[in-house]
Write a structure and sequence with these properties.
The chain is globular. It is α+β, with helices and mostly antiparallel strands. 31% of the residues lie in helices and 24% in strands. Strands 2, 3, 4, 5, 9, 10, 11 and 12 form an 8-stranded mixed beta sheet that branches. Strands 1-14-13 form a 3-stranded antiparallel beta sheet, with no helix packed on it. A 3-stranded mixed beta sheet has the order 6-8-7, with no helix packed on it. Strand 13 and strand 14 form a beta hairpin. The protein has 11 helices and 14 strands.
Length: 303
């Protein structure tokens, strides 16, 4: 059993109304959660582990600032070239019996990462990954997939590419709180930036995104530096806890204490569902999360 610790997080402003309504009208059946996938993109730097964060317009269940990700799509079920661990293996990693859903999560993760950043975890074989995905041709392909004019399967098939599922690592399963109006059941994965690729914003849709140093972001969590830099109406003047969902904040903490990509990816994780619940602390509504507590043995593995 993982060691669990009770953690309290700020209630994001855009969830305050839903939280009050939930309390006033009594707990009801939660709205159905949409399945989603998200990818923590990583690279090593001289000052520590870096990850890609982007701005999400609207009130996204993934957070105002978040790792690349989004809802699963019916086209994620299409047959396509597949290299690396099988869907059955992924189902075991995720702790689910639904092999089809596990496959959809893996495809959705790779598709969302491609749409939002141009980073494509695909190649012609197990030894090679596609390179130079920053061209205008690749941008057109990204836009076509994002606008559902083309499917990822079509983009890969045309170029003789297969998914490189061996480049993904399963992290955690986060669910939106019961009271939220828009709820995601999100599987988080991690991947290191492939050689010869560099993330970029999706033309016409991307607003803000960049590599951030995990340790620096965590260190400055009580300041408004990151939100001010993103420069959006709902980011300026907000601290990290008001911009990120608790899951993202906890993952950033783990990255901040890990000694590079390999150490972070080799950290042993057990399948576990995390879901914030609404609590009142000192007259203030907050989110409570049962988060995995780092114990000596785990910490050594992580570092």
């Amino acid at each position: 059993m993982p060691h669990l610790a009770r953690r309290l997080f700020a209630l994001p402003q855009d969830l305050e109304g839903a939280a009050q309504s939930w309390l006033e009208h009594g707990e009801r059946t939660p709205r159905a959660a949409r399945f989603a996938s998200s990818v923590v993109l990583l690279r090593d730097s001289p000052t520590g582990l870096e990850t890609w964060l982007g701005y999400r317009p609207g009130s996204s269940p993934l957070g105002v600032l978040a790792f690349p990700g989004g809802s699963l799509d019916p086209a994620d079920d299409e047959p396509m070239g597949w290299l690396g661990p099988s869907p059955q293996h992924w189902a075991e990693q995720m702790g689910t019996d639904d092999v089809g859903l596990a496959r959809r999560h893996v495809v959705g993760a790779i598709r969302e990462l491609f749409e939002e950043t141009g980073v494509l975890l695909a190649g012609p074989d197990m030894s090679n990954t596609v390179e130079a995905t920053s061209t205008s041709e690749w941008m057109r392909a990204r836009m076509a997939v994002a606008d559902q004019e083309k499917t990822l399967a079509q983009v890969l098939g045309k170029r003789g590419l297969s998914l490189r599922t061996d480049l993904l690592k399963s992290l955690v399963n986060w669910r939106s709180p019961d009271f939220a109006h828009r709820r995601f059941d999100t599987r988080y994965f991690a991947a290191t930036l492939p050689l010869g690729q560099e993330p970029s914003l999706l033309e016409g849709k991307g607003v803000w995104g960049r590599w951030v140093n995990a340790a620096e972001v965590v260190q400055e969590r009580d300041t408004t530096a990151l939100g001010d830099e993103a420069g959006q109406e709902n980011t300026v003047g907000r601290s990290l806890g008001e911009l990120l969902v608790p899951g993202s904040e906890i993952m950033l903490e783990k990255m901040a204490s890990a000694n590079g990509c390999i150490a972070y990816l080799s950290y042993k994780r057990k399948p576990h569902v995390y879901q914030p619940s609404l609590v009142e602390e000192g007259g203030k509504l907050m989110l409570e999360v049962e988060a995995a507590k780092t114990v000596a043995g785990d910490h050594q593995r992580e570092r």
